[in-house]
Amino acid sequence: MTRDDFYVGYLPLPARYRRFLLLLVPGLVAGALVLAGAMTAMQNDPGDGTWDLTESVVITGVLVNEPYSALRVTGDDDAPARDVLLVTMGKMGGGGLGLGGRTGPVTVTGFPIERGGSGAVLLAIETPETDVAAAEGTSALLPTESLGEHRLSGEIIDPKCYFGAMKPGEGKVHKACATLCIRGGIPPMFMTTDRHGERTYYLLVDEAGGAIGGEGLEALLPFVAEPVAITGEVQQRGALLQLKTDPTTIERL
């Protein structure tokens, strides 16, 4: 009599099923490895952003409140004067430091958030102290040069997370967090990427050069962390680029 290949648990596995499983199991394992590799390759590079909470730094400069809270640091022959954006420990900008309309030379202690040596963001942890002597020669005004009207494609990011507080700090997976950060007062930035992969960052301001708020902010928030096109005037102010635009004209790509 010929034996039926019907499987019974307490009997030996039929040879036909055994051959099938010997082919199926290695194939499934190989397929899983290929799929995992493909998914890994599709992920964005988290970048070299750092947020070192083990050692604080002290930076002295002139506190400015427009368009966003920042510390204006004196330049030298090697580097121009620059604005170091101030943010707090939570999802808030420098306005959360309780400085009100205070201006002038100050010393701030905090943890730096940097990506690619940008030094663009300082996480402030202590109330700034007046230090006039150390800030002598620091100008509260930086020359602004217009670079013309441009239509740029890229992504609106919140610099605190993007520059090192979160990985990944960009893309749709980070949309909810970035939206809360920008709504909380962290300055919105616009990131563009050229064909060589080089990234450029623009501080977003309104058409008058001020902070984007109110209805303008509400118009901007739905586009955070998505591919968009923004048209406006590009300005160079010290080491910082800023983009003056009307948020209601942002286009989703």
Mind explaining what this structure looks like?
The chain is built from 4 helices and 13 strands. It starts with 14 loop residues before the first helix and ends with a strand. It has 2 domains: 50-135; 144-252, Beta Barrel (OB fold (Dihydrolipoamide Acetyltransferase, E2P)). It has helices at 15-42, 159-165, 175-183, 214-220, and strands spanning 50-51, 57-64, 70-73, 82-87, 104-114, 121-124, 129-130, 144-157, 189-193, 199-205, 227-237, 240-244, 251-252. Residues 132-140 have low confidence and may be disordered. Helices cover 20% and strands 32% of the residues. Strand 2 and strand 3 (70-73) form a beta hairpin. The chain has 253 residues and is an alpha+beta fold. The protein is elongated and about 85 Å long. The strands form 2 sheets. The protein has a 5-stranded mixed β-barrel.
Quick summary:
The protein has 253 residues and is of the alpha+beta class.
CATH topology term of the largest domain = OB fold (Dihydrolipoamide Acetyltransferase, E2P)
Q: What's the end-to-end separation, in Å?
A: 70 Å
Which strand order does the major sheet show? 2-3-4-6-5
Mean pLDDT across every amino acid position = 80
Structural class: alpha+beta
Question: What is the radius of gyration computed over CA atoms, rounded to a whole number of angstroms?
Answer: 26 Å
SSE pattern: HEEEEEEEEHHEEHEEE
- State the helical fraction: 10-25%
Largest β-sheet summary: 5 strands, mixed, barrel
CATH class of the largest domain: Mainly Beta
Strands, helices and their partners?
Layout: H1 15-42, E1 50-51, E2 57-64, E3 70-73, E4 82-87, E5 104-114, E6 121-124, E7 129-130, E8 144-157, H2 159-165, H3 175-183, E9 189-193, E10 199-205, H4 214-220, E11 227-237, E12 240-244, E13 251-252
Parallel strand pairs: 4-6, 10-12
Antiparallel strand pairs: 1-5, 2-3, 2-5, 3-4, 5-6, 5-7, 8-9, 8-11, 9-10, 11-12, 11-13
